[in-house]
Structures are given as C-alpha cells and as structure tokens.
Amino acid sequence: MPVSGGEDPMSQVRQMLRELLVGRENAEGFFCLCVSVLGHNDTRTHFLPLIQLLATDHNSLHTTLTSIYLEYFSKDEDDELAVALALSLLEVKGQQQTDTKPLFPDPKLQGQTDTQASATYRPQNSSIQSQSVSTNGSSSQPPPAPLPKGASYAQLAAVGGRRQTQAQHQDSTSPRRSSGHGSSPQTERQRGPTQTQKQTDIKWSNVTQDVCASIATSLTSNLNQAKDDITVVECEVDQSEKPKRSKNRRQRRKGYGQQVVGVPRCPSAPPPVLLWFRRDLRLHDNPVVIGSLEAGGPVIPVFIWCPEEEEGPGVTVAMGGACKFWLHQALSCLSSALEHIGSHLVFLRTDEEREGIGSSLLALRSLVRETGAQTVLASALYEPWLRERDQVVVSALQKDRVEVNMVHSYCLRDPYTVTTEGVGLRGIGSVSHFMSCCQMNPGPGLGVPLDPPISLPSPSVWPRGCPLEGLGLARMPCRKDGTTIDWAANIRSSWDFSEEGAQSRLEAFLNDGVYRYEKESGRADAPNTSCLSPYLHFGQLSARWLLWDTKGARCRPPKFIRKLAWRDLAYWQLTLFPDLPWESLRPPYKALRWSNERGHLKAWQKGRTGYPLVDAAMRQLWLTGWMNNYMRHVVASFLIAYLHLPWQEGYRWFQDTLVDADVAIDAMMWQNGGMCGLDHWNFVMHPVDAAMTCDPYGSYVRKWCPELAVLPDDLIHKPWKCPASMLRRAGVVLGQSYPECVVTDLEERRSQSLQDVALVRRRFGEYVDPCSGCDLVPLPPRLVSEAMGVRRLTGGMVNTGGQFLLPVITRMEFKHQSDDPDADAASNPYNAVLKGYVSRRRNETIAFLNQTDFTASVINEGAERRERQERDQRRMEGLPRPLAAQGRGKRTPAAKDRFSTVPGGVATSHR
C-alpha cells in the first residue's frame, strides 16, 4: 500500500477528510487521494465505514461519496463481464470453423487437433487463470475441465464470475457449481466493509477496458489478432504497458453506460430477481429467499419505504415511533447478514416531496427498468390496505410482463382462507372457535422450516438506492440549543435487534422460562415470558420456526402455543372487519359516554397516575417499548373502567410506543377491553389488588418507580395508606416526589361504567337478543356468504340491502346490569373485577409446613382424599352435599410449639 512520508495512512485520510469538510477539497479529489494513500483493496474495505459519520450531518456529501465509490468499484465487474463475453463469442466462432481449419492457423499448432488447440485458451473453474503457454501450444497445467453443456463463459460470468472462494482457487480441478440453494460460495463484491480477500492469480482490476475492446473488435476482423489479445488476458498484465484510453473509447463507454444501466451485459445471462423484503426481515425459514435462489438469476434484495402506504389509512397508526426505530435497527442487521453471504440490501424511499416517487408500484417499475428484472418475490401481507396495494402492484407489473409472486409465510394460516364451514358462527371471536374452524377446514401443510442460504448470486451492476438513514426511520428530535434528544437510548440498550438475537431469546426461553409460563406468565417481576413478539412482528422469527421449536422442546405448554392461534385470530378478524382499529364492532357501544379529561390521559401515558402498578407498567413501556401481556390488561382496564377514557386513545398510544405494535392484535385486544369487540373480557383488573398476582413483593414497582423503593412490601402498591412517619423516612412526598392518585373513588367509577353500558344497551334494544340477552353484531358479507353456502358453491358474495345480526359473547354482569341499571357494581353477582391472590405467603407457609412436618402433611392428604371420595359418592347417588363447617375456630394461644411461627412473620393456626 503506497504511503508517503512514513505517516500512518489513516491519519492522512482523516486530515484529507477535514480538508473536505472545510471546502478545500471536492468529493472526487478526496476519493482519488484515498485510493492513492490506502490503495485499491483497502479503499474498497475501509472507505464506506470511514464516511459513515457524514451520513447524519452531511447527508448530501455522504451520498455523493457513496456514488463515486460504487461507480469506481463497479468498473472491475464491467471489465470482467466484457472479457467473458468476448471469450464466449470466440468459442462459438471457433466451433463454427472446426470442420474447415484450426481455430488459429499457427504453424506451432499444426500437429495438434482442433480440440487440443482450443483447450489451450479455455480457463479452469469457469474463470480465466494465468497459464504459461509453451512454444508447442501445450499448457503447463493439467487439462482443464470442460464447460457444462450449453453454458458459455458469459453465462457463468453473469451469475457472478468472481464468486470463488479461496479454496476453489487452490483446487482448480474441482468443477464449479452454479449458484443455487446453499451451494454458492461467498461473493467478493459487497456494498460496505467486508473482509479483505486474497488476490487470485489473475488480477481483474488490472485488466483494462482497452484490452476488452480490442478482443471484441478483433473477433470480426482478424482472428490472429484475437489470439494475441486473449494471450494478453491470460497472462498477468503489466500496469506499465497498459495502452492509453482513447477518446473514442471514452465516448463508447459513456454511451454504453447511458444506454443500459444495470441490465445484464450478456444476452444469454438470466435476468435478475427482485427480492422485496417487507415484514420478513430474516434469512432463516424464509421461503421468499429460497424462491429467489430457485429462480436461477442474480438476486437483488430491496426494501421500499412508503410512509403513506405503511402507516395505514386514517388513525390506524400502523407504524409508530418505536416500531420505526426497531425497523431501522432490524434493517441494519439484515443488511449486514446479507453482506456476509455476498449480497447487499438496496434501500428506496418513495416520497413525493423528496424524490417524486409516490408509491411502491412506481419504485418497483423504476427498479425493473433499471435492472431488467422479470420476477418480483415478496411475502404476503394481510392488512386490508396493504393487500389492496399488493393487488394493484401485481396487476400492474403483470401487464408489464413481470412475474410477481406473493408467498404466504407471515402467519400459520392465511386469514383469507379460514372459513366457518362445518363449525358455524356460535362463539365467534373466541380462540376456541377459531381453532375449530382451522381444524374443520385444514389448509396446506405448514411444511418443514427452511435453512438459511449460504450465498446469494449478485448482479453485475447494483441499482441506485439511498442510505439507510435516508429512510428517516430513526430520527431524533433536537432541542433549541441544537442537542439531540435520544429518546430511544433505553430501547437500544434493552434489545438485540438481529435475527441471532431472536434465536437466542427463543433458546433461552425454551431452556428456562417455558417451565414457569403456564402458571406464572403473569408475573411482572420475573422473566417468565418469551419477549419474542417484536421479532415475530417484523418477521425476524417465523411463526413456523417458533411452533416447530416449541413442539420439539421438553416442556410444551398449551398456553404458549395458543398464543400463536390468538395471533392468527387477530388477523382473521382484521380481514373480516377492516375498520377494526378505529370503529367499535358493537353498534350500541359507539354511543358510550366517555370522559374528556385530557389530564387523566396524560398522566396515564407518562406513568403519573398515583397507582404504582399502573405507573410502573407505563414507565416500562415508555423506556423499553414493551410490557408483558398481563400488565397490558392492567393498564387497559384502568384506562377504560376507572378513567372512563375511550379505548381508541389507548390503542393509538400503544401503537406509537410499543416496539411490537401490531395493528391486528392491538385493535382486537383494545376492542375486547373496551367492551365493544367480538369477545368480551370477562374480567377487569384492579389497579391495586392485581399486584398480589403479578408483583407480590413489589420488586417490579421498585425497578420502575425507584422513588417508592424504601416502602415495605405490603404498602408499596398503596402508598396513600402509609403512615406519615413511614413516608417521611422513605423520602416520599405525595404530590411532589410521587404523584397523588388521579382518581380516588375506584368503586364509584366502576359502578358508573356499568351504568353507562346498561344505558346504551337499553337505548339500542334492537341490538340486544331478547332470548339470550347477548349483544347483536352485524355480520360482514364474507361470513354471510359462508353461512349461506354461496361462497363455497359459487365463490361469490351475498350482497343485500339489509344486514344480518349475530349474537356474540357478552359479559354476564352486563346482562344483569341491564335488568337493574341503577344497581352498583358491588351488588352485581357477576362482578368481573379480579382481586388477585389474597396472599402469596399462604402457599409458602404450606410448603414450609410440609417440609418440617411430613406426618401432618400425609394426614392432611388422606383426609382430603376421603372427603373427595365421599363427595363423589354422594353425587353418584343423588344425595345433597354435606353441610359446610360453620362458625369460627377458637383462637388458640401461642404455646411452646416450635412450629407455631414460620420464618417471615406469618403465624399459623393450631388444632
């Protein structure tokens, strides 16, 4: 590497970079100086990481330098392809003249056959290698393997003539395999910093365009001159003897580049395939990636960001701030993974104001024109607005004679293929009904998860794109003084955004957390959940891979497997009701009276409600972008049942702050929690008593509300009940260091919520079934067609002027409240408020007694067994149940019994 003056070359480059930033040097001059100081190979490796810092503050300069870099290093590929084309034409010409005369009428080759003479110029391993040609025309190397039948050097070069590993260069006798699934070696051509590879015997960067042009011209004029040119190509070219570039050559080169940009240079080369990544940002078990390999041509991975399409219509908020940040990090990890297998991810932003491209269709058409691609592969998406977009894309590109394949892989079942035939509509909205529909109407088999590819064939010329930062997914706001507000710092430190991170979390969960998931998944103070939801949402982990690994684990909890069914159920409901994210499914509940207290909403969003369990969950959501499912129920119940705020506010906040924000799942769950979905939640989480289930010792609250960390376990979830002296010692001042409760009369507000529901049910009596008391929901045309058999017989849809109403699951306390609207919640026999466990220490006490007094434990088990047998016998004989014990047991004074006190201060009763 040329270094002047003995100074560190990187120091020289940094000095030149400073000159560039102050305006003393232009972009082209800076790049030329970098090549001069670092050399060809080190510039290819270190230039892009060196200028990466410019992407934030000097975006235009970074784009210019990147374009110069790509244009410079694409010349090697063009030279290689031109030489390969010349050799292919030369071979065809030689085969046509085999019957009349030798390929090259050289007197030194008169004693050889035509095949031997032509074999002298045939390279090994489908690439041109240095050979020493003797005076009699024989090669000093062993005879090379013949080309595959029907294949030319141009075809082999078009699918990647430089994709040879170091081992293949050393073993020249092994035939090269074409680029297929799991067989292609790693590509040397990569966009971005890659590992420096050793130079092969032929230095393609030293083959000039003049030599390639002279070879192509001599094929039509003088075969003897072509022989001399090929000999120059086969031997290492001396840089000092390179012919100078002529003016005509520069004009031809310029016109040729403007004529076709990115189209394969060889007519016989297969066209490239556009691999359109959307929400399948993975290489493991990705049928779209494997399908692109099976297409046989070079693969161009692309990601298109169109904000107008991705964010959804109206108030959908399909991509909030936290989701965009995760997407930015996931795309960076995917791009690195593609570079490791010799490919590159091309980013495009469709922004009408910035680039004049307003849709994904226009971006794909631009890519097709630029690359000459004839196939587009992508994973199917099921949101209604995205499905309509995809249908328009498929129809338009097919008119342009471009094949488009949308592959199902995002869910376990395609939601548009799930039917209710053979099951009926009773219980619709529940996961049990959905699983019955899938079992009665099975679709195609899931198949076996696919392994990731070893390499991807690269095109000769990459299409133009923008840097990842140009998508604008991870923008941070700035203060007035110019400093940046890094709101995603905690999210960045809390997650591994790569595909390997998803695999690691899955493995850790199946080895440990899965054993406690069935009974302890609601615990907020213990890692008993998988935390895989963001990876599933962005397709970094496939649902099929997760299901296979879960069923192959030692512990296979049904509750965890049913979560995948819940996910598919949510997408099925979204396909049936496209207005699910913003409109209540039960018409009467649209008229519910909601509070307009914006201060309560702000306190709920920021974790300042005065209820420690709710505040801890909302602070965790704000800082990490995630909370477990039980805590989502807690905060949703508090917002709807106690603050009387509309469920749409909670949905929009979750969509903006969750890293796993999913329109289908969030809309379905918030509709159910807001009492207007297909499946009513038959429970309401109490903001204080629920802590006995999910955070019995207060460790979760202490982590996210550190101002309450000193309070004891029994009072940490209700600091307003602490004595003033205790609060003073803990340094807690209600209203200052920790907020006071935004609402204090929880029971009264809960009763008011029930009365509001009873009022709208009586007001809209036509939507209440008089027989069962259940709410009636209008059916979508798709379900009506299935129920009437029209869709099964003709494939059509029922279209009537009226509507079909179906009774759906309704909470029992709503039915009872409708009979007595003025009754309070406490008197309702079907009160749905969960009080949680009375005390978790009771279980610990029993466990301690069982360990210390085994005899008492055995006697207790025997007594319970006899009671159970007697109860079963009475049931079989039709006898009434025995009367329960009445009265209170006598209080026994503490005796000198060493078992009367259990560690932890829990007293036990004596017999």
UniProtKB/TrEMBL annotation:
Chain intervals with Polar residues compositional bias: 110-123, 192-202
GO BP of this protein: circadian regulation of gene expression; entrainment of circadian clock by photoperiod; nucleobase-containing compound metabolic process; response to stress
Biased composition (Low complexity): 124-140, 172-185
Superkingdom assignment: Eukaryota
Ranges of Basic and acidic residues composition bias in the record: 862-878
Keyword set, alphabetical order: Chromophore, FAD, Flavoprotein
Listed Basic residues bias regions: 244-255
Name of protein: Deoxyribodipyrimidine photo-lyase
GO cellular component: cytoplasm; nucleus
List of residues binding FAD: Y517, T529, S530, C531, L532, S533, F560, D660, A661, D662
A Pfam short name: FAD_binding_7
The organism's taxonomic lineage, starting at the top: Eukaryota, Metazoa, Chordata, Craniata, Vertebrata
Cofactor(s) listed in the protein's UniProt record: FAD
Keyword hit for Flavoprotein: yes
InterPro entries membership: Crypto/Photolyase_FAD-like_sf, Crypto/Photolyase_N_sf, Cryptochr/Photolyase_FAD-bd, Cryptochrome/DNA_photolyase_1, DNA_photolyase_1_CS_C, DNA_photolyase_N, Rossmann-like_a/b/a_fold
MF terms in GO: deoxyribodipyrimidine photo-lyase activity; DNA binding; FAD binding
